[in-house]
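Hi everyone, sorry if this is the wrong subforum. Our group has a chain we'd like a structural model of before ordering constructs, and none of us has done structure prediction before. Sequence below.
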Amino acid sequence: MDPLTDRALSLFNRARRIAGWRKAVCAIRRCNPALSSMRDFSFPSGYRIYHAGIRTVSLSEICGTLGRSSDFDRRFYPLADHVRDRWISIALARMRDKPVGLVRLYSADHCYLVADGHHRISVARVLGELAIEAEIILVESLRKERTEHLAGHNR
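Answer:
Right subforum, don't worry. Here is the predicted structure as tokens:
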């Protein structure tokens, strides 16, 4: 095995141990270590979704997922061994300065939900990065627009 692969495997194993410790602490504190899923967030009854462009997003602003809530914890440490191969391949690409693509995030409830890019976010966190480039999909309440529209007519 080459040194970079050894390092990537070591980083993954360390991240899994951290996830295990965090899970144990949450068991004692009676909290849920899993990543919040879409069902934990309230989307407005009337809303529209549109592409808001590409932005650099702080990893601390990413608070949930549209899926995969059992694969990563709230800090994106891997909770499952079955994510290892993909995780290591992304870590290797990052260590070799190869592009890994943008993550896709939905902006809702003042935070971001991951649609695509869980492994990339996890690797970025473990490598000590603070932010990641993302394609942003905005979820916007139509009720807010209607309220603002009506307020404009009352002036």
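For your construct planning: Helices lie at 3-29, 84-95, 118-126, 142-153. Residues 3-146 form one domain.
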